[in-house]
Amino acid sequence: MQWKRLVAVFVLMVVAIPVFAQTTEPFDAMLQKADAARSSDPKRFAELMEQLRADNRQITRLQRDKLKYLQAYEVGIYGDQLAKGAEMAKRLYDETGDPSIKYRAGGLVASFSAINRDLSTGLRYLQKAMAMRKQVPDIAIRHEGMANGALLYGEIGQHRIALRYADEVLADKPNERMRCIAGHHRLVSQFELGALPAQDGLIQSVVDQCAKQNERIAANIARSILARKFAADGSPDRAIALLEQMLPEVEATRYPRLIAGVHALIADLKLKLGDVKSAEEHAKMTVAMGEQIKSSATLVSAYNTLYRIAADREKPSVALDLYKRYAEAEMAHQSDIRARELAYEIVRHETKQQAAQLALERASTQKARLVAGLLLVMLGAIVFWVIQIKRHQGQLQRLAQTDTLTGLGNRHFFTQKSERALVDAARAGDSAALVMFDLDHFKAINDTYGHGAGDWVLKQVGKTCSAHCRKVDYLGRIGGEEFAVLLRGFDLAAAARLAEDCRSQLAQIDTRESGYSFVVTASFGVSSTAQSGYDLSRLLSHADQMLYRAKNEGRNRVCAYTAETAAEYKTPKRSPSLTVINS
């Protein structure tokens, strides 16, 4: 009997030890530790989540909702399933009765949707969350939601709104972690608005704050902005040194957009310093992440680097293929920008409609003596909103077709209209010509006088060249400082004369209105259907070759694709590389 007692005691000890072990620490304390570690210590976060899932204690509904929030975060960030994480957060938003959990769940949907490019959903949930933030007693949780707002509006391109959210958090005595998160969002917005602080130390302080909190993604985003400032200030070597120093930590974050962005920036800077081999390696690393960074400026930059390298090596077929990929990436990026703008406009319009509907519902509860007046108000509101909807539809259509800075057609609109015009011209037997031009030393204008002066120049160029075009011509901004115009009924000579007129007028622009005095010039390439046929891509390619020749021959001139140049470009040894956009 003695041995049976010993076995019973042993079994009891084996069973009881795990029970005692799991109950030594309160469930709420484990939840709090996991919440604190979720972005700063991924390994510790994963360990705590395993413990929480294995814990078989009875928990309250509030504890279960907190655990569901952390699980949604885990799936979206570390499971690399943003859509699934967003769906889990949506269900939690609908099911929970706790204002703080609902607020956090709405903010999580907003941030996941922003990263996953589902911007309309993100905006809707962000607005829901922001509407209830006064009900959230914990100031740290309120700040977290506002930081999500800064992230989302930054993704949409509404950087002034993003900056406002970040400033509001920083002015409200945030904790150390939120000082980092809001500080890095503030830097991103300032960078996009061209308003970075002049002192490097202010940027470094954000890096140090985030490094202290082990927020590696935020710290390295801030470092990459500092590197860009070094490069803009004329210290590319210093920028490369910083980027290469931070690269191992960047890759350890496993955040594709950050990793690709750093590789693409290194590639661009290395190429400018003549380290072609290293530039090519970093650009290829960026392109290899294409599906994870599609529709991004990073992918455009990487293809542009590879294209320039192939062009300098005088490999026309490779350069042409890379140019097409660069153009496709640029078009996808521009489409993504338009989609973001449209999402913002659509949700803003929905918000106005909801506000009007709410006002009508409140008005309907008033006394019967106001019914007649309310009916008139409702009728007027309906008419008003019909007019507003029509107006907004027109605005949205213009947004999708127009370059917002210059008012000219964007690349997509120019391509669409030009291809259609060429089909019509071919059927009618009419001639057509294409003029492509690129501003000379435009980057130097931006670097020397600021982006405000650069934007002013682009607007003046659009106005000047529009004055030389007819209603049947299509003038578009097809790149950063690159423009093209399709001329129906023009032969090569007439198109070259028009190009020469534009070149002359551009050189006479009085820049003193911008606050600075400098000369604006452009290099022009001209092609026509007589030599290139009615295919837009061939017309663009031939005009691009001539633009490159104009650049090589000293800039500020017009070069036309004639029969002689056509023969010359068929000889491989004399075939120049294609033009480099933004050269």
From TrEMBL:
SMART domains: GGDEF. It comes from the Bacteria. Keywords: Membrane, Signal, Transmembrane, Transmembrane helix. InterPro entries: Diguanylate_Cyclase, GGDEF_dom, Nucleotide_cyclase, Rev_trsase/Diguanyl_cyclase, TPR-like_helical_dom_sf. Its EC number is 2.7.7.65. It is an enzyme of class 2 (transferase). Residues 1-21 form the signal peptide. It catalyses: 2 GTP = 3',3'-c-di-GMP + 2 diphosphate. Pfam families: GGDEF. Residues 430-563 form the GGDEF domain. The chain crosses the membrane at residues 370-389. NCBIfam families: GGDEF (TIGR00254). This is diguanylate cyclase.
